């Protein structure tokens, strides 16, 4: 397969655009797409099992989704031909990408700055400006579905329990989750980095276990079928191992994927809590991306390190829900649920060092880490009870701050900033 991706990184929009690859052998300046050779992922389904079996034999299977069909890779001509078969339904599988304000870190460091050991977001979520060492998360797993993770990073290696790759083959590749982009390593650090030898960076829940699942390529984009397969795998692992798991998805798309929607619903039904980035398409109403927009996912907005009207300010780039739902205290499709530090966040980097990035991607692991920390203190609680506790803590903080007319539920910050105390 030959494809490339390109980021639009303004706060108006963050999405991945497919750019047709040039064919070396193209005649008369034609592109591979014009020749019908551009390849992409498709979902094929049918009520006719014989037709489905024949299609699998002809095109091969990348991912099998049973009642939802199967995915495979084909070119434009094959896609057009398959669409003519009235016994089959065929649709392109959408791509999802990392959600951040820029494609590059604002700053990268090879050595730890002492003042950054406990970044501002961690101090804020603990409500302790003098915090020197976060604690908690024992026995809870945080599954980071992202560009992979540098599992040998000094501040992360002690937490790694699983490392798997969903981007290359039809099966899960164990003990492989190499991060060549940086995003996934940064996200993991904010959730559970343990400070390494004591001089590294700390995350919210440094005693939590890390499940590092590579679902995105080195360009920061990936197909929804691989992501959906990873979500289902997390749920099955949680059941098989009888353990509590929080999924962190700092990725998104403006369009919904049925495969991911069904996978999120499946995971939620299995007791997994799903935390997802709201997206970076703010400040416009109704701009929450998927999977954050789903009702069974907790959408997280990004806060800046700026106090305004007694609380932290929601970043302009952070996607918004609908103002019509302000104050109803109900999470509907497309609503922000909670908010957390997301601007100028300092964390671990794939090189073994550290970097600073902004985005709802960075806010999400703060909430995932908080969820793990809370769950560790009451492992008998269900994922729905844990979700309610996050909402309650967010409302309590906003009420104390005395900010806003719609205290505790607004379209920009959701129930508010969920904190440790």
TrEMBL record:
Signal peptide boundaries: 1-26
Peptidase S8/S53 domain ranges (all copies): 137-396
Q: Which family does it belong to?
A: Belongs to the peptidase S8 family.
Organism lineage reads as:
Bacteria, Bacillati, Bacillota, Bacilli, Bacillales
Under the heading SUPFAM superfamilies, the entry gives: Subtilisin-like (SSF52743)
- Protein name as it appears in the record: S8 family serine peptidase
Q: Which keywords describe this protein according to UniProt? A: Hydrolase, Protease, Serine protease, Signal
Species of provenance: Planococcus liqunii
What residues sit in the active site? 146 (charge relay system), 183 (charge relay system), 361 (charge relay system)
A Pfam family it matches: Peptidase_S8
**Coiled-coil annotated spans:** none
InterPro entries membership? Peptidase_S8/S53_dom, Peptidase_S8/S53_dom_sf, Peptidase_S8_Asp-AS, Peptidase_S8_His-AS, Peptidase_S8_Ser-AS, Peptidase_S8_subtilisin-like, Peptidase_S8_subtilisin-rel
């Amino acid at each position: 397969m030959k494809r490339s991706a390109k980021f639009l990184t303004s706060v108006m929009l963050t999405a991945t655009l497919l750019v047709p690859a040039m064919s070396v052998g193209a005649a008369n300046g034609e592109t591979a797409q014009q020749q019908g050779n551009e390849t992409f992922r498709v979902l094929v389904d049918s009520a006719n099992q014989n037709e489905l079996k024949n299609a699998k034999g002809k095109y091969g299977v990348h991912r099998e989704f049973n009642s939802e069909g199967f995915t495979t890779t084909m070119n434009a001509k094959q896609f057009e031909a398959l669409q003519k078969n009235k016994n089959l339904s065929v649709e392109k599988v959408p791509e999802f990408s990392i959600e951040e304000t820029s494609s590059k870190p604002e700053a990268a460091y090879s050595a730890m700055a002492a003042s950054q050991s406990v970044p501002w977001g961690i101090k804020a979520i603990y409500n302790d400006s003098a915090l020197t060492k976060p604690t908690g998360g024992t026995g809870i797993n945080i599954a980071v579905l992202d560009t992979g993770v540098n599992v040998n990073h000094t501040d992360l290696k002690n937490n790694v329990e699983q490392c798997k790759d969903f981007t290359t083959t039809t099966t899960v590749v164990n003990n492989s989750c190499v991060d060549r982009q940086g995003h996934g390593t940064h996200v993991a650090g904010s959730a559970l980095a343990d400070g390494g030898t004591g001089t590294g960076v700390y995350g919210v829940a440094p005693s939590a276990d890390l499940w590092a699942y590579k679902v995105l390529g080195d360009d920061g984009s990936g197909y929804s079928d691989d992501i959906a397969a990873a979500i289902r795998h997390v749920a099955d692992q949680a059941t098989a191992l009888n353990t509590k798991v929080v999924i962190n998805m700092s990725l998104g798309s403006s369009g919904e994927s049925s495969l991911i929607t069904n996978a999120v619903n499946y995971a939620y039904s299995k007791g997994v809590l799903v935390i997802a980035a709201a997206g970076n398409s703010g400040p416009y109403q109704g701009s929450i991306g998927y999977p954050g927009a789903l009702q069974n996912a907790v959408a997280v907005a990004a806060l800046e390190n700026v106090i305004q009207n007694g609380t932290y300010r929601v970043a302009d780039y952070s996607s918004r829900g609908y103002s019509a739902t302000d104050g109803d205290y109900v999470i509907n499709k497309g609503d922000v649920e909670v908010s957390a530090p997301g601007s100028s966040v300092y964390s671990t980097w794939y090189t073994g060092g550290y970097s600073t990035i902004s985005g709802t991607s960075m806010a999400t692991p703060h909430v995932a880490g908080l969820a793990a920390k809370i769950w560790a203190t009451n492992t008998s609680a269900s994922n729905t009870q844990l979700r309610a506790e996050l909402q309650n803590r967010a409302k309590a903080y906003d009420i104390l701050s005395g900010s806003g007319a719609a205290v505790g539920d607004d379209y920009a910050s959701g129930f508010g900033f969920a904190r440790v105390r």
